[in-house]
TrEMBL record:
Pfam families: ROK. It comes from the Bacteria. Belongs to the ROK (NagC/XylR) family. This is ROK family protein. SUPFAM superfamilies: Actin-like ATPase domain (SSF53067). It comes from Streptacidiphilus monticola.
Length: 409
C-alpha cells in the first residue's frame, strides 16, 4: 500500500497558531528565524507563511535580508491591511476604546465619560460601551475579528463574574461576561466577529496589562513576570509564567491590595489598617503631600513635578509612598520569586522619583532581595497596557487557530 503523501502546508497546519504568535510578538522577524523557532523545514515554513498571507494576517517582504549560513531570508511582519480587534477598557467614570492590529499596535484611543447613573448600572454601561465600539469599527472600514474588555474588577473563571470590586459599585457576583456578550450582540458586533463563537472576551485589567507588557513591553523574555499596578483606586497584581497568565483556580489570583504593609497605618475601606493599596496608591501620595485624598488625580502630576524640582514636602511624600511600595513588593517577591517586576503608570512615577529607596527597602525586607542577583524592578513600557491587554484577549482565538478566519467573512 502506497504511503499517503502530505503537502508542506498539511504538515504545517499544526504550527499555524505558533507561527502567528511568533510574528505577533516580534520573535520571528524573518522567515529563517521563524523556521528555526518552529523547528520545521524551509518548505513547511514557506507554506505556513503563504497560508497566513492568504488570510491577510502577515506579509512577507520579497527583498531578501541576511539569513543564517550565508542564505538570504525574507522579512516577516504584520499585514498592513489585515483585520483588527476592538479593545475596550471600563473605568470608574467612563471607558476607553481602540482598534488594534496584530503586533500589539493600538490605533487612536477614544476616551469617553459615563454619567454616574450609567456606570452604576452594569447593563447600561456595557451597552453604551459596545455601541460606541461598533461605531468605531464601522467608521474604520476594517474587518473586526475579535473583542476584548479590560474590567477594573476581579473576574472569576470560567463564569466571568465581577466580584469584590472597590472601583465599580456593582453587586459582587455581577454576571459581567454574560452582560458583555449581550451588549456586543445587541450592538451588532457579533456578526463581524469571526473568532469568538458568540462569546466576547472579558478579564481583569491588571491581568491583561501584565500579558501585554510581557508580549510587547517591559516584560519581554521574562520567565516569571510580576506586574503590579494601580488605577484610580486599589493596587492589583498579576503573574505571567513562561508566557502564560497565571490566574489561579478561579481567576482571582494576585489580589495583593489587602496585604498589610503597615499595621499602624491608615484605615482601608476593607476594614483593616495599613493595606498595600491604602499605603502605596494615589490616595496615599495625596495625603502625604497634605492634599485631600479625594483631590482630583491630576494633582498627582504636580506632586511628582515638585518632588523632581527638590521641593521638600513633595519629595518627602514621594519617598513615603516609595517606602511602602518597597514593603509590599518585598512580600510578594518572597512568595512568588519572580525574575522581573514591572510597575504600572502611577507606581512607575514613584519608582522614577525614589527608585533607590524602593530597591533598598526590597533588599532589606525580602529574603531574595538580599541576594546578589536581586530581582529587577522596572517601569512599564506601554502607554496603555490595559487596552493593549484587552486587544490580546480579542486576538487570542485567532492566535490559537488562524484558519477559523476562513469560516466567517
Amino acid at each position: 500500500m502506497q504511503p499517503t503523501r502530505t503537502s508542506p502546508l498539511d504538515r504545517g497546519r499544526s504550527v499555524l497558531g505558533p507561527a502567528l504568535s511568533l510574528v505577533h510578538t516580534g520573535a520571528a522577524p524573518t522567515r529563517s528565524a521563524l523556521t528555526a523557532a518552529l523547528g520545521v523545514t524551509r518548505a513547511t515554513a514557506g507554506a505556513v507563511l503563504g497560508e497566513l498571507e492568504a488570510l491577510r494576517l502577515v506579509s512577507v517582504d520579497a527583498s531578501p535580508v541576511g539569513g543564517t549560513r550565508g542564505r538570504p531570508s525574507h522579512r516577516v511582519g504584520v499585514h498592513p491591511d489585515g483585520p483588527v480587534v476592538l479593545a475596550a477598557q471600563l473605568h470608574s467614570d467612563g471607558y476607553s476604546l481602540a482598534l488594534a492590529s496584530l503586533g500589539g499596535a493600538l490605533g487612536p484611543v477614544r476616551d469617553e465619560p459615563l454619567a454616574a447613573a450609567d456606570i452604576a448600572d452594569p447593563e447600561r454601561a456595557l451597552r453604551q460601551l459596545a455601541r460606541a465600539g461598533a461605531e468605531l469599527v464601522r467608521a474604520s472600514g476594517r474587518r473586526c475579528v475579535g473583542v476584548g474588555l479590560a474590567a477594573p474588577s476581579p473576574v472569576t473563571e470560567p463564569d466571568r463574574r465581577a466580584v469584590g470590586s472597590g472601583v465599580l459599585d456593582w453587586a459582587s457576583g455581577t454576571p459581567l461576561g454574560a452582560l458583555w456578550d449581550a451588549a456586543v450582540a445587541q450592538a451588532g458586533l457579533v456578526d463581524a466577529l469571526a473568532t469568538a463563537d458568540g462569546v466576547a472576551g472579558v478579564a481583569n485589567d491588571a491581568n491583561l496589562a501584565a500579558l501585554a507588557e510581557h508580549r510587547h513591553g517591559a516584560g519581554r523574555d521574562a520567565g516569571h513576570l510580576l506586574y503590579v499596578t494601580t488605577g484610580h483606586r486599589g493596587i492589583g497584581g498579576a503573574l505571567v509564567l513562561d508566557g502564560r497568565l497565571y490566574a489561579g483556580a478561579g481567576g482571582l489570583a494576585l489580589e495583593i491590595g489587602q496585604l498589610t504593609v503597615d499595621p499602624e497605618g491608615v484605615a482601608c475601606p476593607c476594614g483593616r489598617r495599613g493595606c498595600f493599596e491604602a499605603e502605596a496608591g494615589p490616595d496615599a501620595l495625596l495625603r502625604a503631600a497634605g492634599l485631600r485624598a479625594d483631590a482630583p488625580l491630576h494633582r498627582l502630576d504636580g506632586v511628582f513635578a515638585a518632588a523632581a524640582e527638590g521641593e521638600p514636602a513633595a519629595r518627602d511624600a514621594v519617598r513615603h509612598v516609595a517606602e511602602r511600595l518597597g514593603r509590599g513588593l518585598a512580600m510578594v517577591i518572597d512568595v512568588l520569586n519572580p525574575d522581573r517586576v514591572v510597575l504600572g503608570a502611577f507606581l512607575s512615577q514613584v519608582l522614577r522619583g525614589a527608585g533607590e529607596l524602593v530597591s533598598e527597602v526590597v533588599a532589606d525586607r525580602s529574603l531574595w532581595g538580599k541576594r546578589a542577583s536581586a530581582v529587577p524592578i522596572v517601569p512599564a513600557a506601554l502607554v496603555r497596557p490595559e487596552l493593549a491587554g484587552a486587544a490580546e484577549l480579542g486576538w487570542a482565538p485567532v492566535l490559537a487557530d488562524p484558519e477559523r478566519l476562513r469560516a466567517v467573512r
